[in-house]
Structures are given as C-alpha cells and as structure tokens.
Amino acid sequence: MAEIPVRTASFEGVNLALLPAAANDTAKCGGYSLLVNNGSGSPITCTIAVPGNTSYGVAAPDKVFSIPAGQLWEIPLLDVYRDPSDRLAHITWSSTTTVTRIVVKR
To answer: What is the rounded distance in angstroms from the CA atom of residue 44 to the CA atom of residue 46?
Structure first.
C-alpha cells in the first residue's frame, strides 16, 4: 500500500509530476483531489472504497470511475471515502500500466 504524495501550490506554482499508479494506493481525503492520467489506448477504472454501511444496513457501494484512454481526470477525494482505521482513501486500479497519478490540495 503506497500513500500518494500531495502537491500544494504556492505563489511560485507547483510541479505536478504525476507518478506511476500502484496496485493498492492510499490518499488523504477531504479537501484533496486525485489527478489521474490514463496514458494507455484503452479505458481503465479507478475504484475508491467507501467504508461503512448505508442507512439500510448494507455495505456502502464503492465509487468507480471509468477514465477514457489518453485522458487526464480530476477526482475529488471526499470525506466519505475516509477509512476509519487509517483515515485514508483506499484506491485500486483495473490496470496500472501507463497510468500516473498525484494528489493535490484543493
């Protein structure tokens, strides 16, 4: 499990050098966004685990994002994704080949 580094802009700007995705990434959430670049020729999925149960007592469904080939996406990392055990969002990928990502403070 690799925690994705956070980039915070300053008056001078910030280098948003995206790093290769890892099989079981984690990230800070609440006030942060995940930038994902899919450099492959096919769409990929990014799944963020949603801990806990719904008001009906069943497991909350995970949030799945389909990222088209060759596109850069920004995904808000909402508080609802925060795992109570480590206070991080848990992220998995359908493929990590040619996929890069970084977390930015909003």
So the answer is: 7
